[in-house]
Every structure is written in structure tokens, then in C-alpha cells.
């Protein structure tokens, strides 16, 4: 039997992230973790470094061919990543 002031675990974690102002960093970390799943194995295998700083996603890719392909679809990648995060986390992608 639930008490009237009980909340679900999901709601409690969401509230905790908001109270301690960790939501942004949590979302950024989620983007980095889900990069291989969202971009596929071909891109993930050639990605050597990925990190987020001030709303920009920095990605180092070994293959110049893949880098050029990703440059052409940059806005689509940003939309896909933000959709996965559930909020506007990434504003720009920089390929190194």
C-alpha cells in the first residue's frame, strides 16, 4: 500500500538532478555514452575522442572520408542527439 506522499524512483532521481543542478552534465554524459548506438558501428569504430564542453560536441575521427560525410549531415546529427537527450543539450558539433 502506497502512502499519499510517495513518489516513484524516476521522479525522485529527476528531482534530485534538478535540485543539485546536475541535469546538464547528466545529459551531456548521456550523449557521449550513446554516440556509438546513435551513429552506428562504422562511425563509432573510427571515433577516437568525444566530449562535450559548453554545449559543443567535440568529436575526433580518424577517417577523413567519414568526417566529410558527417560534416554534411551535421544538423541532422544535432537533432538526433538532442532528441535522444530529451532537451537541447548540443548546439554545435566540432569535428577534430
How does this model look, in words?
With 96 residues, the protein is of the alpha+beta class. It has one domain. It has five helices and three strands; from the N terminus they run αααββααβ. A three-stranded mixed beta sheet has the order 1-2-3. The mean pLDDT is 91.
The proportion of strand residues reads 15-25%
Order of helices and strands: HHHEEHHE
- Widest β-sheet, arrangement of strands: 1-2-3
| DSSP helical segment count | 5
The description of the largest β-sheet is: 3 strands, mixed
Alpha carbon gyration radius: 17 Å
Number of domains: 1
What class, by secondary structure content?
alpha+beta
Low-confidence stretches: none
Q: What general form does the structure show?
A: elongated
Question: Which helices and strands occur, and which strands form pairs?
Answer:
Elements: H1 9-19, H2 23-39, H3 41-45, E1 47-53, E2 56-61, H4 64-72, H5 74-85, E3 92-95
Parallel strand pairs: 2-3
Antiparallel strand pairs: 1-2
Helix pairs in contact: 2-5
